[in-house]
């Protein structure tokens, strides 16, 4: 059976590396990329179709209808998105730093956008076709693991994403009993998101997008070893489970 991949946030560095992993291991795959602007896929090595999307609910509904009309039913969906800083706004070090605009921006990007992507894909899921849906979370979204404090907005946005995926997994167990949800912590990756914080990363712990993409692709080959249907996995780049 030909595998069908839907990649959200396809313009990100990890997503680009992930497309190359698909090309390397699954050259016959059907790949559908969603991003805010067209991306250059000439170096990927396989043909991909693109859908330009602002991630509004209206535009995502158009995506749903297009995929339904074309009978495109995914076997794997990966949502590559995330925001930690912009312009002069950086993660908070103390309560006094909490800012309404920064908080709402991160909640919109890190929490609302991924669940709207999942909402757009849900009508394409069924009891017949196994599908794995993955979103990028972060270890700092763990309530149990929070021993350092700070980073209020980013922590909250990822913890909320985890809760939304947990809730969706319960519903999808009834609607599409072969669908598994996964929350993936990529580690500190050499992308724009981590640039301001890379000087504090221990040696050997700053990963390339290619390494992260390879780890994720490998892990997703056997999703049944990561989680049961109805219970999302919350894992790191090694496949180790993170405490919620």
From TrEMBL:
Source taxonomy: Bacteria, Pseudomonadati, Pseudomonadota, Gammaproteobacteria, Alteromonadales
Pfam families: adh_short
Gene3D superfamilies for this protein: NAD(P)-binding Rossmann-like Domain
Annotated protein name in UniProt: SDR family NAD(P)-dependent oxidoreductase
């Amino acid at each position: 059976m030909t595998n069908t991949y839907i990649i959200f946030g396809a313009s990100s560095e990890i997503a680009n590396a992930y497309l190359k992993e698909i090309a390397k291991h699954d050259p016959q795959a059907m790949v559908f990329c969603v991003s805010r602007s067209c991306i250059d896929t000439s170096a990927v090595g396989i043909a991909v179709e693109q859908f330009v999307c602002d991630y509004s609910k209206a535009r995502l509904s158009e995506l749903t209808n297009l995929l339904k009309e074309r009978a495109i039913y995914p076997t794997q969906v990966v949502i590559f998105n995330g925001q930690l800083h912009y312009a002069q706004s950086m993660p908070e070090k103390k309560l006094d730093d909490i800012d309404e605009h920064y908080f709402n921006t991160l909640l919109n990007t890190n929490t609302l956008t991924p669940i709207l992507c999942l909402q757009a894909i849900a009508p394409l899921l069924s009891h017949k076709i196994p599908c794995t849906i993955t979103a990028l979370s972060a270890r700092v979204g763990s309530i149990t693991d929070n021993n350092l404090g700070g980073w209020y907005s980013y922590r909250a946005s990822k913890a909320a994403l985890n809760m939304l995926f947990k809730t969706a997994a319960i519903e999808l167990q009834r609607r599409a009993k072969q669908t598994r949800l996964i929350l993936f912590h990529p580690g500190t990756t050499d992308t724009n998101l981590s640039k301001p914080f890379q000087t504090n990363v221990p040696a050997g712990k700053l990963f390339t997008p290619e390494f992260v993409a390879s780890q994720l692709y490998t892990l997703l080959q056997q999703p049944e070893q990561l989680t049961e249907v109805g219970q999302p996995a919350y894992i790191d780049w090694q496949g180790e489970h993170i405490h919620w």
